[in-house]
């Protein structure tokens, strides 16, 4: 069963709205909203307008994000007062729409506060002003929008808005609040599953490369506090004992539209090397970058900057290529994938993170990488562990991909449902539908 359409439609004369129900009207947005220019009050709490959480107290935003925002050092005269049911145009509104404020407080002078004048039920416009077709229309008001630039009221005023009977706005808003909450709950479940799968993947790798696969094998003290016990026949030492670590050439080359591939950080994706969009350079520069450091099958290309743990295993079909900057080459004594899993495990990435704490430039030097503490074991056992981890991570990655696809589908359905309801393409008046029917609208 699909959601019904309205009995009769007419051309709205507005591109982003298309046809609307015959009893709807269209108005210039400046007739429905005005700008609030009131300076902040002395007792106002500081608010943050975010695409992720909406409008919330700045202190709460800091707690949720685990990071600080730019502190306002000017006096309150540089801030703007905002009232409940105002809407806030922020610097990110061209990406995610305009935020509905349900709090009293103050916020940045960079923002534009919109106050409803007439024909506006705020809960309805909270959905409309963040709907996909409206955001696209808002973007079309300027071709100069880039990160950091500001949207103005003049941009907002260029996009006409539908005039919907207020009682009908209330019904549409109630329907969307209910149905999007259901979809959001399903998304949250899938996102929790993704977190659990990532934790399971990391725990599986870490245990296998530090404890092995045999639960009954005799153990010994590794001599490293954070590593604990390891199988008695394993060795523990610096990476340089078991692998050659070769730095990249610290040389900037000219990139060309046609040339030979360079592997840098951007080519390290999902524990593999992706050459599909690799930068290219001339044969002369390419050969220079390869001098004394020609990648071979079984090598690892390892990121040594802030993208801790990004590493790619070199397969035969990816060759030849050269290394760019901010990576190094690790060439283990064996060709198994054991070392590939080892350098991505928490025991190793934690060491690198510790090296980067307090560093102005978050980059480990090659000597520090050579001194990373790792385990080493007989070749056949390395291969057995690598085979086990290849199969197990493939299984977990398949589940992760399935959950990721489910999230994408749910978000697409949410976007389509909101867009259809606020532009009148579906009639949700007096409608109570289960989620699966709403999603197929």
Automatic annotation (TrEMBL):
Range of residues in the leader sequence: none
GO MF term set: DNA binding
InterPro entries in alphabetical order: Restrct_endonuc_typeI_TRD, Restrct_endonuc_typeI_TRD_sf, Type-I_RS_S_subunit
Residue span, Type I restriction modification DNA specificity domain: 234-400
BP-aspect Gene Ontology terms: DNA restriction-modification system
Record-linked SUPFAM superfamilies: DNA methylase specificity domain (SSF116734)
Keywords annotated in UniProt: DNA-binding, Restriction system
Recorded family membership: Belongs to the type-I restriction system S methylase family.
The organism's place on the tree of life at top rank: Bacteria
The protein's name in its UniProt record: Restriction modification system DNA specificity domain-containing protein
């Amino acid at each position: 069963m699909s959601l019904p359409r309205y009995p009769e439609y007419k051309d709205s004369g507005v591109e982003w709205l298309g046809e609307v129900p015959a009893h709807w009207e269209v108005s210039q947005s400046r007739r429905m909203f005005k700008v609030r220019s009131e300076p902040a009050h002395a007792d106002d709490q500081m608010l943050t307008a975010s695409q992720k959480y909406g409008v919330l107290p700045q202190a709460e935003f800091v707690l949720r994000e685990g990071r600080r925002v730019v502190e306002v050092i000017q006096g309150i005269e540089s801030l703007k007062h905002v009232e409940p049911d105002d809407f806030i145009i922020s610097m990110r509104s061209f990406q995610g729409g305009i935020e509905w404020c349900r709090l009293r407080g103050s916020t940045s002078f960079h923002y534009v506060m919109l106050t409803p004048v007439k024909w506006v039920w705020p809960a309805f416009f909270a959905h409309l002003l963040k709907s996909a077709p409206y955001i696209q229309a808002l973007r079309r008001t300027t071709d100069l929008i880039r990160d950091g630039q500001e949207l103005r009221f003049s941009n907002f005023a260029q996009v006409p808005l539908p005039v919907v009977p207020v009682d009908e706005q209330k019904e549409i808003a109630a329907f969307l609040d209910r149905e999007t909450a259901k979809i959001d709950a399903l998304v949250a479940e899938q996102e929790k599953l993704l977190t659990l799968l990532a934790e399971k993947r990391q725990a599986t790798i870490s245990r296998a490369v530090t404890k092995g696969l045999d639960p009954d094998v005799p153990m010994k003290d590794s001599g490293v506090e954070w590593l604990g016990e390891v199988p008695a026949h394993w060795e523990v030492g610096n990476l340089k004992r078991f692998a050659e670590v070769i730095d990249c050439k610290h040389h900037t080359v000219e990139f060309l539209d046609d040339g030979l591939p360079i592997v840098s950080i951007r080519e390290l994706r999902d524990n593999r090397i992706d050459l599909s969009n690799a930068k290219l350079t001339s044969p002369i520069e390419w050969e220079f970058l390869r001098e004394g450091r020609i990648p071979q099958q079984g090598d690892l290309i390892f990121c040594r900057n802030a993208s801790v743990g990004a590493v790619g295993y070199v397969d035969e079909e990816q060759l030849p290529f050269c290394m760019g900057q901010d990576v190094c080459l690790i060439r283990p004594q064996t060709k198994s994938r054991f070392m590939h899993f080892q350098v991505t495990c928490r025991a190793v990435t934690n060491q690198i993170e510790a090296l980067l704490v307090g560093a102005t430039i978050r980059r480990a030097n090659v000597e520090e990488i050579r001194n990373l503490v790792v385990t080493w074991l007989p070749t056949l056992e390395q291969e057995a562990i690598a085979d086990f981890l290849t199969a197990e991570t493939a299984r977990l990655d398949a589940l992760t991909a399935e959950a990721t696809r489910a999230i994408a589908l749910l978000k697409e359905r949410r976007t389509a449902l909101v867009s259809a309801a606020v532009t009148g393409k579906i009639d949700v008046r007096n409608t109570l539908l289960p989620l699966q029917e709403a999603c197929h609208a």
